């Protein structure tokens, strides 16, 4: 039986492409999750998928990176699957470890996946450093503008409005205002 596993790293990403490819590949069951693929991240659906695999089954993924990116982690997974008589099929590489050539290619490609990840991290850090040199700061934009904060602070200092009313007038949430307003310890 072919059992598919689809994963995206963030909750705002969509699994549709992977699901379509796994269905087209003939997977009888597909496990999905939205979780980071980092080494120490929790992936309960992946763990469940691995427990379900039986001798003669194949784990099918669209890309090697869906399983992980660290050479040791991938090698351990491959070894564990082989010991259990379970194959691995990676669709975008047209790779199947149930064949001798597939096993060889997997051992060559796993380190490349880790290098690709390390290069991505290096490029991201370099880009962030260049942006900082130009005075830009990465990260999420502030939820409110300086003008909104000034207006909210003035309304708060008047002691005529509740925080919910101030938030409504400033088009934001009370929780956001609590982060930005200068509120004394007596409040």
Automatic annotation (TrEMBL):
SMART domains per UniProt: Resolvase (SM00857)
Ranges of residues in domain Resolvase/invertase-type recombinase catalytic: 1-135
Keyword annotations from UniProtKB, A to Z: DNA recombination, DNA-binding
A Pfam entry, by short name: Resolvase
Family to which this protein belongs: Belongs to the site-specific recombinase resolvase family.
Protein name: DNA invertase Pin-like site-specific DNA recombinase
